[in-house]
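Async update (no meeting this week)

Hi team, since we skipped the sync, here's where things stand on the single-chain job. The sequence we agreed to prioritize is pasted below, unchanged from the tracker. I ran it this morning and attached the output directly underneath so nobody has to dig for it. Comments welcome in thread, and please keep replies under the output.
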Amino acid sequence: MIDAVFCYVTCADAAEARTIAFTLVEERLVASANVIPAVSSVYRWEGRIHEASEAVVILKTRSDLTDAVTTRVRALHSYECPCIVALSVTGGDPDYLAWIAAETAEPLEGEPDLA
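Output:
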C-alpha cells in the first residue's frame, strides 16, 4: 500500500478550485481532485472574525509529493495564507491507492502522457 494523503484546500471560489485541480492533475502531482463549489467559512484573520463563501478542493496524492503540491497550490492561489493541509490516508481499497500511485508517477520513456 502506498503512503497516500488527501490535501484539503480552501479557495476563493469554484473557478480557482477548478484551476488548481486541473493544473495539478495535468502535472501529475495529484491523481484526482474533488471540487466542492460552495462552503461557508468562519475564521479569524488580522484580529477580526470573518464569514465568507469559499470553495474546497480535495487533492489525492502520495505523501512524498506533499511539499511539491503545497508549493504549486501556493503559486496558483489568490490568498496570502491559504489553507493547505495534508491528511494521512490510513487505509482503503488497495486498487484505488495503487491507482493514485500510478497516476502520480512520471510517464515511462516512450509512453504518451495523456494529460
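Quick observations from my side:
Strands lie at 4-11, 32-45, 48-62, 84-88.
The chain has a mean pLDDT of 94.
Reply here if anything looks off.
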